[in-house]
Amino acid sequence: MTEYFQDRSAIFESERLLKESYTPNDLPEREEQLKRLGLEVLSPVLNDAPPHNAFLYGKPGQGKTAAARFLLEKLQNEVDDRSGVSLTTIFQTCKGHHSSYQVACDLVEQLTGENPNGHPKRTVFARLYNALQDIGGIVVIVLDEVDNIGNKDMILYELPRARDNNHIEDMDVSVIGISNDMTFYDELDPRAKDSLCEVEIHFPPYGADQLRSILNRRSEKAFVDSAVTQEAIALAAALAAQDLGSARQAIRYLYKAGEFAALNDESQVSEEHVREAENHVEQMNIAQSIRDLTTQDQLALLALTSLANESETPASTPEVYSRYTDITSHVETNSIAMRRVRSHLHDLDMIGVVSGAKRSGGSRGGPKYYWELNTDFETTVDVLTEENRFNNVLELIDKP
Fold first, then answer.
1. Between residues 295 and 18, which one has the greater pLDDT?
2. Which residue numbers belong to the known binding site?
3. Could you tell me the residue range of the domain that residue 124 belongs to?
4. pTM, rounded to two decimals
5. Which helix H or strand E contains 370, and what residues bound it?
């Protein structure tokens, strides 16, 4: 084997089981949610009736998508053993989409192989209904990460009412929406809420004991026997439980810890590897969060980063705005009003990139928001450097 590759079989039995795309064969930690989804939502299919529409919600990594895939596969097996029931399941991710129109275009492409993007909305939905009519029977459409479409939620009341509105006939369509945003339900159009949320199922964050159980099951098949210590599993579970309560995060910690052990030619994954993995994953998450920011978000962050480099943080909103306008002039970009920059700073605070706190202005007036970086300085500068037009500003920032 050349110097460019490594045989990791001393640590890993099957790395595939640690990938996000893997769906486990059992979900005992979600037994309550599975029973509700099966009994309250999907059971009518066995009597050749459409299932109820449902809304599954909770933070990322709580098993929502895995639960839907798991039960729908089991339901399909039940239906296959019966005669007279035709069931089709369609999974569609809404990630990267910002409207019902975009989701409808993707559904048409998934069903027909042709994307109608650019055609009028009425034409797109007509093609979607025709494609569903061609399938017939009972169709369950799972819209994953549906919160991405925001308030452009027309598809959430269009699809469940397709038969009532004579868009399809002699068949049924039901929708299961999955959301990572716990507030998305509250902001839904009342018609969409009425159509989609016949049954609502909340997936709360996992506790440390649940995550440890998940990691133990996954590691039994993913790692070589005795390649992972129980201490390492317990630490990965505890770290994830303290942060997001996410199974995805806990598995990511353990997977990266295994990679560090393999790279160091060590035969066992230890607590030290897990701590190294947590730091690495956290830095990668921060970097991706910054890359995903809008230009104005990045400019506000750049202004705060510049002030942090000069030990001028926490900085008030007017101070950040003053530096922001200096930067926009320097890179020849249009500036926006201070209230909008303040809004961008609040958005950055919500995703954990910066930290803002309201403090008394003392002799300088009433209370103001003061801002400071909540991310590693070097990582922030490195990622912002990827945007070439910021380079002439970032050259002025010396890393500590």
1. 18
2. 206, 218
3. 28-202
4. 0.76
5. strand 368-373
